[in-house]
Amino acid sequence: MSLRLIVLITTAVLTSAGAAWAGVSTWAVGEGGLPWEPQSEVSAAIDFEMPRAIQPYGFSADENIIQAVKPWEDLRSTSPADFTAEGTAQVWNNTAESFSNAAIVDGDSTTSTGETFKKFGAIQIGRIFYFDLGASYWANRIVFYPSPGAREDFVRGFEVSIDDGQHFSKEGRPEYEVLKRLEITPEPVVDIGFSLQLVRFIKLRILAPNPFEIAELEVYGQGFVPRASYLSKFIDFHNPVNFGNLTLRAEKWGEETREGAKVSAVLQVRNGTDDTPLVYYSVDVETRDEQEISQDEYDKLLPEKAPGAAIIRRGPIRYDSEHWSIWSEPLRIDATGTSVVPLDFLPGPRRYFQFRILFTGSSTEVIRVNSLWVEHSPALAARCVGEVALLGQPDPPRGVATTPTGVEATFTYDVQAEFNSQRSSGFDGIRIETPGRPDSIKLEMGHPLIEVVPDSMEVEDTGLELYFRSNRVTLGNNRPVRVTFKTTPLLYNTMFRGWVLDTGGNLAQPIFPGNANQEINTSSLQVFGSLEEPLSYVEMSPNPITPNGDGRNDQTEIAYGIVYLLEKVAVNIGIYDLSGSKLKAVFSGRLGSGRYREAWDGRNDQGSLVPPGIYLCRVSVDTRAKTFSRLKAVAVVY
């Protein structure tokens, strides 16, 4: 899936939130819409103080960062399950004492750890307090002190260590570096100054046996955070809808950054049919049988390796790719203006929508997002399915339409709608995306199919649109539709995407591959080139992958076959981003005919994990005659 930017302008005229024309409405957040903060599911280092905009946090030297990153989650004596995930600020300790860690980050010097660490005869050496700011901030000063009424019960010896949030051990824990260590503390107020640097994790270790209390820990710094993120809640439209354009207005904010610094906001979207993109499974530890369960049921089970007699334990958590689309290709916003993006690539109709924005800035300049608008309209039908076949070949071998690449062929495109209520208005047009300008176009409708003269037709180099207003397809007139046309496939794998249209003003609805005609046996919108090359197949599984180190779907296996070769030839496998830049050389060598497998673990040539998104795997075979290659898309999600 890709976000295609169709216009970038410096000003825009936007309709008000909730405005509607024909059947199209808008959901909006920011200027002219809902406030940003209540629509957030998880945010890291996002400043919500501005009434109708979001941007990364920025601080002056006298602002306490601890107070800006509220609310703090008090984990008491339990450490986080995942240190690498950004978002909620968290505080915890290594003791079994029952007290509120939140008291030392609440901004109130009269609340503190109290009497917890003042018990008679107790040795306090080794107490440790941990602070996770939730994101990395530019900091140069850490301060902590007791309450005004307990000035003598201050920490008499300490060690403060920090981590920037970018360096973790193999187990995924912060790699702390000691910032300052004092065996004897001379004053109640500890004020540690250091050079400006990124700080996310802070560890305070007590080195003295004396009783103590801590009322507040404060962190100070200066400048914008280098990275921030905003993840929306699942936006519920209450009924399945189709999606139109997304409009985002942004501006650069702050002092002009130094030359070469990357200042941007990256947008991604997805949609689904239910309120979670995850599927939870239990596992029988004896038989290894898995059973899909609810999240509540999952949370009540013991982890698989936890001690206990229970046979049914927590199993894997998988991405629900059947009911949720994967995150779209990132759209980069790096200038002041308004971006309008068509969302016609999203499957639909679907009820739920979600977006996320990743901010990357310098210490002096960031991108500010003022508003985000999403067009939507009611479903034209519960579902529309389509299938493509070569004319005269309704039942191709293995159910796959195959034709020589670069040779004109005649195709049939069958569409069948499914309706489940009168609320769906139906459609009176169809759009088909083709690899070149189509011709010899014919429209047929009904069962049996009868040729119908379109009310109007538009033909372009990228496809066609047919309108049949006088033969509108509805619940009461649910007639099959067939479009026949000639075009020339230019790629080995050609996808004929399609949409049904409504001249009444509702948004287009995508056509899913499926069984649209009982006499056609492809159930697909894809057409393949004939197999006249040494690469017989390329397959990738699992897809998508989640290389987060949990041992499940951390890498994809690239399986491929080489045929027709009497001698070894050069074979290369690489991973590319959608711009064509090579990220990883997976394999390079000489092979003969046979079946082979390689693996990709989601990392580039430098060993770093690639960002979430869609990537292309290219397998090429260089023969004496020519180079043959195949591309396969693979998704990386976290």
Give an account of the 3D structure.
The protein is mostly beta strands and 638 residues long. It has five domains: 150 residues, Sandwich (Jelly Rolls); 161 residues, Galactose-binding domain-like (Jelly Rolls), CATH 2.60.120; 42 residues, no CATH class; 147 residues, Immunoglobulin-like; 102 residues, Sandwich (Immunoglobulin-like). A hairpin with a 4-residue loop joins strand 30 and strand 31. The chain is elongated. About 3% of the residues have low confidence.
Compute the number of strand runs: 46
Unreliable residue stretches: 6-21
Distance between the ends: 17 Å
Helix content estimate: under 10%
Return the CATH topology of the largest domain: Jelly Rolls
Molecular shape: elongated
Keywords:
638 residues; mainly beta; Jelly Rolls; 5 domains; eleven-stranded antiparallel beta sheet; seven-stranded mixed beta sheet; 46 strands; 47% strand; elongated
In a few lines, what is going on in this structure?
The protein is mostly beta strands and 638 residues long.
